[in-house]
């Protein structure tokens, strides 16, 4: 292999990259695609230049792309960032609904980490949202607070973060996200309520690890901070409790949201997106549809369109 200076191999046992195809030549000669990064592994540095120069002279097999697309389509990106309320958002989920609604417009990226608090999030913030990334998110939906609101343990372990530190952590997180680009928008989800009985059962511990009241306190602190920083925020603690039967229908386990609980989150997010005066708009009905000009909508009986590109859900299901 160290003597390789040509664009062909004669060894039938060599593993060839998937893009490299044999031509109709004698002795089973195989021509390498000139852009194949396989070269980086099989050709010594000293001879790579000779290899690549001669490869450029070869006739590339018809149908095989010879260069990277100059202007690939890049969709706007929505990042969902938070703890388990975000990570489990595709289970019965508000995150799944958003991904479905924006299926031909936006890449919805999940960055949810169960068990995390604002302290952990702050430590890795620059790794998830590097300031020099080639594409910055158009929208970041942020949720932290439920784990922070857990009561402190005597040994100092656990996910509790004191209220003042929580507020300061969220301020730093918001400032970092704002610095990503002038077009990066933020929506904050406040700490939702919990069903203590569902969570702890009929024989709860003498001192509850967390309470609905502690969630209220952290929810209000986050909302207060967002008002100061002019950040769009959703009061989940109040919105989830607007239904009289919220305790029975909202939670899988007393904390994490059922499909009914997730509907509250979805509707409130879409309401913010619809009413915000952001330019460009990030509301799904006002955003451009990818490759709309190539869409040929089939026409059914009576001249009615079948599955037009604006369709998202079956008839009767609306998210306005």
UniProtKB/TrEMBL annotation:
Keywords attached to this entry: Hydrolase, Lipid degradation, Lipid metabolism
One Pfam family of this chain: Lipase_GDSL_2
Keyword Hydrolase: yes
Domain called SGNH hydrolase-type esterase: residue spans: 80-263
GO molecular function: hydrolase activity
GO terms (BP aspect): lipid catabolic process
Record family assignment: Belongs to the 'GDSL' lipolytic enzyme family.
PANTHER family (UniProt xref): HYDROLYZING ESTERASE-LIKE PROTEIN, PUTATIVE-RELATED, ISOAMYL ACETATE-HYDROLYZING ESTERASE 1
Protein name per Swiss-Prot or TrEMBL: SGNH hydrolase-type esterase domain-containing protein
Protein's organism: Lupinus angustifolius (Narrow-leaved blue lupine)
